[in-house]
Structures are given as C-alpha cells and as structure tokens.
C-alpha cells in the first residue's frame, strides 16, 4: 500500500520540474521577443494619383515616373526658380513628386469644425484619412480597437503649413487652433484622440528615416505588449519653398528633379510628398483572429552614425551594424534575403557607402548565380523624406504579393565609383519575377536619415492565405442562394459615391466571390447613419441594384434608411399554427445557436414523449404524422419560435419588449426571462396533456414542481390583459390561471399589438411566428412605429431572412455578421474605401476682403459629376455642351465665396426689439451663432445633432456661451453646452430661463 510520502516527488524530481518550468518560461519570453509582426492593412497616397495599394502597385509595375512641376497652388515657381544654386532665396529645380488637392478634407467625417480646419496642417488631415483607409483595408473598426490597446507611431519631419499661415496673413491671424494644428507632436495624438485609441501615441522625427523608425517602434511595442494593434507610418507635404531653398544651398537636390539612384549622373534627389500607414499585429493574434496577412516583419533595428565625417554624412559601419542587428532580431540569415529596397537618394557620395554596407552583410558567400536584387521607389515618386521609409516598405509588400520586382527607373549608366563587376548585385531595369521561386521570399528595407539615425527592416512574405474559420460540426453546408451587402456613410453624397465605387469594383473584378464581398463589407467596416442594404443572388444582380440606387430608381431587394440611433424593437410571438410546420434546415445546418436549441429539444421530446422533432419537421409528413395533431403543434411552434428568437438575438437583434398571443405567450415569457427555455418546454409539454413514456412520468412530475419563475428582464405584455407583467407569475398555478382566460385568444387585434408595444417605446415591430398575423397592420395608425418585420416562417429561405435583416439594418440595427457566417469559409479581400466628401480649407490670402479666414469650395468631384450628367443629357445641343466646362469653373469660383453666415460678425448696427422667447426662435438664433463659430452655413446645423459631432470644442464653446449670455441677458456658461449638448435641448433651457426672468429682454 502506497503512503502519502511515497506519492510525493522527491526533492530532486521537484527541482527538475521547477527547472523545466523555468526553461519553458524563458523560451516563451525569448520567442515573444522575436515573434513576427503581421502587416494586416495598408493605406497610402503617393504621387501619380496612387491613392490605394492597388493603384500604387500599378504605378510601380508599369514603371511610371510620377515627377511633375510644382503645382501652381503651392507657390509661384517662376518667382522662386533660378538654375544658379548660388542665387539667394532661389531653388534650382522646378520638379518633385506631388499629391493633388491637398487643400481638401472631409472634416465632417472626423467631427472637426471648419474654423479649426483652416488652422489644421494638411499633413494631419491627410494622415487621418489614410489611417482610416488602412484600418478599412485591415478590417479593423475603430469602435472595436478602442476597447483594447492600439498604438500610433507616425513619422513626420516637415511643418510647412505654419509658414503658409504666417506668410499669408501675418502673426495677427494666429488663433487658438494654430498650435495644435501645426505642432508635429499632435499628428499622432490627434489620430489617437479622434479614433479613441488608448495605446502609445508618438510622433517621430529622425528626418528621412522617420517612418521606418516609427514601424520599428511599433513592432517593439507589440512584442512588449504595450500595444495589441499598432498603426505605423509617415506623412510629408511640401507647401512652401523654404525647405527646398535650404536643400538647394546644400546641393542636395537634383537639378533635373529626378532620383537617379546608382546612375553615373546622380546628383541629388527629387523631393516628394505622400502618406503611408500600415496596420500591425502580433502574428499569433492575427492568425487567431483570421486576419488577412499581407506580409511579416521578421526583424528590425535602429542605430545612429555616431561621430562621422559630418552630421549629415552617411556612415558605412553604422549601416552594416543596423542591417546585422535587424537580421539577428528576426533570426534570418543574409542568404535568405533576395531583395533590398535601398535608401538610394541619388547622391554620388552616399551610394558607394550604402553598396559597401550591402556587400559586407548580404553578399558575403553569395554567388553571381544568386545575386542580390536592389532598387529604390524614389526613382518613381521622389524622396518622401519623413514618409520615405513607409513608401519603400509598402512597395516591398506589394512586390512580394505580386511575385514581381518592379523596374528601377532613371538608370542609364551605372555609377563608376562602384565596382559592379565584382558584386553579386543586380538592379532590375525592367520588372522581373521574384528570384528563387521555390523558397520563401525575404527582403530588406533601409532608411538612413540625415539626422544620422538609421533603420533597417527584414520582411517575409505572408503565410498561406487566411480564411474565416468555419465550425462545421461534421455536416455539409452548401453556399447560400442569396447574400446581403451593407453600405453606409455619414452623408447621402458619400453613400451614393461609395455605391459608385462598388459598381466600378465589380466591373473590374467580375470573378470575385459575392459571399466574400458581402462578408468583408458587412463585418469589417464601421456603420454610419445613412445606410443602404441590397439582397442579391449574384454579382450581376448586385451591380444592377447598385446602379438602380445611384440612379434613384426603385428596385426589389434594395433598402435605404437613416439610423440616427439604435431602434427599440418589440417582438410579437403569434399563436397561429394553421400552416404546415417544417424545419429550416439551412439554419439548422449553418447556425450553431439554432441547431443547439433544436437538438436539445429533440433530445428532451424523445426522452419524455417518444417523439422525434427532426422526423416530424422534415417536410415529408403524411396525414398520419403527429405534426397534424393539435396536441403536438403548440410544442412544435414553441420550439421553432424560441429557437428563432435566440438565433436572431445571436445575429445582433436586440429586443426591447415582448408580447405573445395564445401559444406564443410561452416563447414570449422565455424571451423575457420569466422562464428558462428548458422550463418553458416542460411547461408546454405539461399543458399539452400528451401521454408521457411510462418510465418518465415520476421524473417529469418532479421537474414540473421545480419550475422557477422570475421577474421579466424586459417589458412583457400579457396577451390576455394587454398590461405589462410585473409579478403575476410566481407559481405554476398562476401561469395556468392566466392562460385559462377565455379572452386570451380574442383579445388581440393588429392595432392593439402595435399600440401596446409602441407604448413601451418600440419603433420597430418584429413578429416571430409561422403565420404573418401582423403583415396587414396599417403603420399610419401608430405614428411611432416606423418599421414592421413580419417573419413568415413558412418562407424559410435566405432571401426572406436577408430581406428582414436588410430592413433592420437600415433602421439602425448592428448585425453580427461574424456569427451569421461562422460556419462558412470566407476569404479576406480588398474592397473600396470610404468615399470622402471633401471641401477646401485653406488660409485666406492677405488681401482677402472678408474678415473670416475660412475659404471653402465644394469638392471638385461634385462639379465633375454635375457636368458629366449634363453633358449626356439629350436636352442640350452641341454648343451648350461645349459651354459646360466654363460653367463648371464659374460654379467653383462662386462656391469659394463666403456666405453671410461665414463672414465675421460686425455688430455695429444697433436695433432695438424684444427677443422672442419661443423655443423655435431661440433655436434659429443658436443655429446661426453656432454656425458662425464653426465656420459653416446655418443650413448645415441639425438642432438634434450633438455639438461635438460638428467639432465644437472648449474654444468654440466659450465664444458661443459669451455671445448667448450677452444676447439673452441670462447666465450662459460653456459647461451648459455639455449639459445641454444639442441646440434642441439648449434652446429649451434658454426658453425656461427667459420665462423665469421678470426682465423684458431686447436685442441691440
């Protein structure tokens, strides 16, 4: 016999176990330090209209040179240009890589006031839009990220807009927003603030290496678990000539405006602008979440040149060291790397040093049969300075995905100061297939700042494509016959143009899977007020319905609506069971919640009644089937109703109140929490009077005695009395007494059901039953009920279900698409980004006669759309069509003129009249005043929309409160705009204060 002593491990054994445990922990820590970081999303704006990863790749793959002359809206290049670099105050090049319309921004989307926007650096504006696009590309919704730790790491080293403001208007025009609008430190902070991200937030300036250093720091933050998700990238805009003048004096710019990297004529670089942002996760987290992985960052490193020949001179040993460190950090050998995206600014001094570093690290033991390929994106778009590194990184990711290294431009004759003949290095002058096709792809990316800070990253191609994981549970699932696409936007214009983007996308991608398109659009994007839902069976039909929406034509399966708030849904469980009962096998096979309840009910009924639910609901019953017997049908109805209720609940349908009719009261009581659904099933079996299995009778009686009734967790309206249940049901006798009332089945009319649920604040009526009892309800008789969803279970296909989901979506419900598609394979794909509704926000010229600094113009695309539509109109002749471009120009000029609402308040004319105390008149004054503070038209202000949605902050609140206090002669403080956050609520407060005052108030 064993004693307790003999069962205990010996001290040596315990010591060995402790050592093994410690070793496992150390290995886990070491593995975490080197865990690959997954790139799961990309957003970008680069020269050459490369405003998406797809367009950027097309530019690279087509070998496009995106360098142009300085745009006329930046500065007058003729006044600043002189080919002689020694002329003071001049630049010796006219060219660079530029972005279009950098003065335009969708401020309403981000809730920034027009007044603040004028002082807001366009780099910050650009960063907001591109970061949002990167998150969309990653299918990461900010509302989800705000629940965890999301870091923001942004490289930014220029600040031209502050110079523009002061040069145009002088110091007198510096306002309260100038500081936050132009401080580079705010670039990352504003992004974190507006998106609600709570992880580390850093703006980084190491000159040309800023954005690659930002990516390195983001990877470190993820590995140290400071962040669970990270946004990393950089931004650069060239808005004034001063920096170009400085670089001209240091002879850093190429006179011909090109980066001629590794060419014999290389003589400096071309300045460029752009923005790139990537979304990062730890690989293990990305795989667990089913994210689409674009590439992996295996290792990264940062160092400094230290004491060199000069502050801005490159340092070969430092470059070698940073590359070595990045490889070691990623546990990658140099021989595995087949391509390096180099710094390559195009200077005859720096290029031999960089090649020397590459030779020392990557070319040792490398044969000429396996050369290292190198190239530089700067030959396409210029040197993006603070955003240069992220542009290089994105190029490499796209090249890996396309299995192609794009051509390196501007290379006619190799740099003679480099011994190319003895180097196993190749520079692709045309696009070429990625070398070593049978091995995993690895690449390096370098960025060396003239601050002396160097960065190098080692990238690996993505692992096998990820799919939405499916819980198949050993049964076959066929793809659905129909799918639902949800689109939304913050304005009607953006929704229409988002639909146009999807039309173009489908045209260009005719082989895309409809299921993948809908799943990605529905589950990975934020949902806004203006909504569109389309039910379709194939891509062609979806495209036709999108076109119908854009053309404002009615079409079956197209639903639109505004979702200002979540709807309050009232569920009605009808008791009619005259139709044939069948099981929705599509739901049973594909939806785990529905299947679980049906399966448990099947087990229970088999055990106690010798009755197979699945056999009876297979749709093959004859006249002798039990399903036709009146005693069985209520049981079947209950099971189907409650299973449907729980399934719709799992899909995101939140019920606010319930009501039942006849047999439907059982399911309603369970839905309200009065009974568990298991007890509800026992109760309805008890009430059926059916004979139990002989051996189960005693056990069943004990279960019935133990039934537990609870108070409702939501309003439960009695089907017999029409009143809200409070504590009527505490015992079994109470329940059967309630059901025995004869008026129970006679009480209901459609209007009574609707009005009772409307009294509970419900504005959507959702019927769950076999027959559509409420389908003929006239909603006009109940004004607060806006929508009726009558679920006719006998029509149990996906088209009907999606029609209901579409109706619920457009009235504000958030559908849980990951739950709906849980049992299907879904692949992550790229989809169109949000359609920005932009306006122009720029500091006004010094000689502008208006006193307000805000200069607005409608988005150019508005006019382009208008002109395009008019040009195709049969009502215009050729001469009239020819006049349209001139008309567009006139319209744009007119739109840039300020309206009276946008002009500064003069306040000189004195009139005397009594102020109205009516709420609507107070609302009108507040709307005018708030519009003036915000810098918009009063027509844009909705009295029910919260002030913060318009970008109203403490600065603006002080001005509004001061003006209101003076105008109404009552106490109005900025905090009142917090307590009363809309014009509607604030006007009621002001009206009440005026009524309480004995003073007669006059307007002066």
UniProtKB/TrEMBL annotation:
| EC primary class | transferase
**Any one of the GO BP annotations:** fatty acid biosynthetic process
What's one Pfam family the UniProt record gives for this protein?
A: ketoacyl-synt
The Carrier domain sits at 917-994
Protein origin, superkingdom? Bacteria
GO terms assigned for molecular function: 3-oxoacyl-[acyl-carrier-protein] synthase activity; erythronolide synthase activity; fatty acid synthase activity; phosphopantetheine binding
Ranges where the Ketosynthase family 3 (KS3) domain occurs:
34-461
Stored Gene3D superfamilies = 3.30.70.3290, 3.40.47.10, ACP-like, Malonyl-Coenzyme A Acyl Carrier Protein, domain 2
Keyword annotations for this protein, in alphabetical order, are: Acyltransferase, Phosphopantetheine, Phosphoprotein, Plasmid, Transferase
Q: List the EC numbers from the record.
A: 2.3.1.94
Q: Tell me the PROSITE patterns matching this sequence.
A: CARRIER, KS3_1, KS3_2, PHOSPHOPANTETHEINE
Q: What is this protein called?
A: 6-deoxyerythronolide-B synthase
Species: Gloeothece verrucosa (strain PCC 7822) (Cyanothece sp. (strain PCC 7822))
